Amino acid sequence: MPTIRQQDFIQSIADALQFISYYHPADFIRSLTRAYELEQSPAARDAMAQILVNSRMCAEGHRPICQDTGIVNVFLEVGMNVRWDATLSLEDMVNEGVRRAYNDADNPLRASIVSDPLGGRKNTRDNTPAVIHVSLVPGDRVEVDVAAKGGGSENKSKFVMLNPSDSLVDWVMKTVPTMGAGWCPPGMLGIGVGGTAEKAMLMAKAVLMEPIDMPELIARGPASRLEELRIELYEKVNALGIGAQGLGGLTTVLDVKIRDYPTHAASLPVAMIPNCAATRHAHFVLDGSGPATLARPALSDWPSLDYGTAGGRRVDLDQVTPEMVASWKPGEVVLLSGRLLTGRDAAHKRMADMLARGEPLPVDFRGRFIYYVGPVDPVRDEAVGPAGPTTATRMDAFTEIMLAKTGLLGMIGKAERGPVAIEAIRKHRAVYLIAVGGAAYLVSKAVRKARVLAFEDLGMEAIYEFEVEDMPVTVAVDAEGNSVHRTGPREWQARIGKIPLVPV
Asked: Which of 4, 9, 15, 101 is deepest in the core (most CB within 10 A)?
């Protein structure tokens, strides 16, 4: 009867979380590389190149793939013959592993978890507690799946109670376009069908940890109704033309996973959860012989790519004018240099409240750009840690007051803007730019200096000033209110018709 020691379990959790912060699963890299090589949309191809280059940089530098290092999900299958040499509960051991991983001095991970979610929303500072699921199974070992789920993709989770006669495919095809690009495609869709509401959601999350095997499935052909559904949805979702980062292109999903369970005769619960381009998960087994060891991927798994800055319009943020901004076109690549302000949810809420009270802001935004980001803390000689964009639609409610009251000239985030924000951008002749979600370490290399200007108590949500050099962004909404997230997918959906099956 094997004995699992408390220290081995805690260390294995911590090691796995560090591992997945900087190593993509090898199957994801292979699949994304294949999609990059086949992509015909220049904007989507550029985005995938940034994601792949960022991924290799993180593997080499042991720094987070994305600044949003996620909420920790742990699935445990505990053998009923296992003995424990432990004084802590299973939940407490998991959380101690999370605490050690996120406070690692060599590679600190961003603490994103807040307690009192309906009230003070105070950051727990160590990313605990994790979300833990435990199953007791026959056997004499403990199997562990660990994932770190970013907020951008988690926020796009969907659930519906369909009638038994309703079409799953119809619901998915109606729902995916409503998810926008905030989940950072290309990624995966996990679908859970049956059971009860919570069972469907749990299956949708768990199935995302299965390996990407869509090319192999297509090559051999489906052997079951679920496999037929997977292929059908894969083809039809990609035929929507949403593309990488929602810019329009051939690949929106790399795979579709489905898991089902018996359900009530009157019910058809369906859950759908996306995984983003920063997909992070690992599997390990403990058998009493010591802490788990995860096999490092080989650098040869990554394609030989460099992301250069040739061809983009260079812009000096310290000299930019409204007239210059008015000349930028949707889909155009812009390279930013100069001083850039940052701020996201909590900072915008505080500033909006101050403006409503007639109070002066602590920062002058006139003629400036603001970057929606919550960076990872820097280590060694870094000016800032990984600093990719957060989902811009969360700032839509503040866009009109910021543009009207502060003289702000432009914003940088990820994914699309909603109609209210687009109208405010058009009205004030501003601009919205996007950085690539899933390329946080690459983006951070453009930051030469960083300092906190205001709201230091907000931690990663404070207002910083970055000094950047050739930071790559794409014009998403121009001064006329034209949005590439509307025109790009529409163009590519018309061009694709139905994505061709490409032999592996």
From this structure: 101
Give which of 173, 175, 188 is closest to 258, Cα–Cα.
188
Alpha carbon separation from 190 to 58, 159, 217, 467 (Å, rounded): 26, 12, 16, 39
Alpha helices in 114-179 (DSSP H): 151-154, 168-175
**Model pLDDT for residues 58-99, shown as the tens digit of each residue:** 999 999 999 999 999 999 999 999 999 999 999 999 999 999
Using a pLDDT cut of 90, give the percent of the chain over it: 93
Q: Is 386:377 a contact under the CB 8 Å cutoff?
A: no
d(CA 181, CA 485): 8
Domains of the chain, with CATH numbers? Answer: 1-150+280-287+298-307 (no CATH), 154-277 (3.30.1330), 313-489 (3.20.130.10)
Three-state secondary-structure class, residue 52: helix
Of how many residues is the chain composed?
A: 504
Residue indicated by tokens 């899933």: 438
Q: How many degrees, rounded to 5, is the angle at CA 178 between CA 174 and CA 182? A: 140
- In 120-252, which ranges are E strands? 122-123, 131-137, 142-149, 158-162, 187-194
Q: 112 CB contacts (<8 Å, ≥6 apart)?
A: 68, 69, 70, 71, 123, 127, 151, 374, 460
**Phi, psi of 446, deg, nearest 5:** -85, -10
Proportion of the chain above pLDDT 70, given as a percent: 98
b (16+ CB within 10 A) / e for 411-422: bbbbbbbeeebb
* pLDDT value of residue 312: 79
Residue 326 pLDDT grade (very low, low, confident, very high; cuts 50, 70, 90): very high
Q: What are phi and psi of 296, to 5 degrees?
A: -70, 140
The burial of 361, by beta-carbon neighbours within 10 Å (0-12 exposed, 13-18 middle, 19 or more buried), is given as: middle
With a CB cutoff of 8 Å and minimum separation 6, the contacts of 336 are 315, 317, 369, 433, 446, 468, 470, 471, 473
Contact (Cβ atoms closer than 8 angstroms) between residue 176 and residue 237 = yes
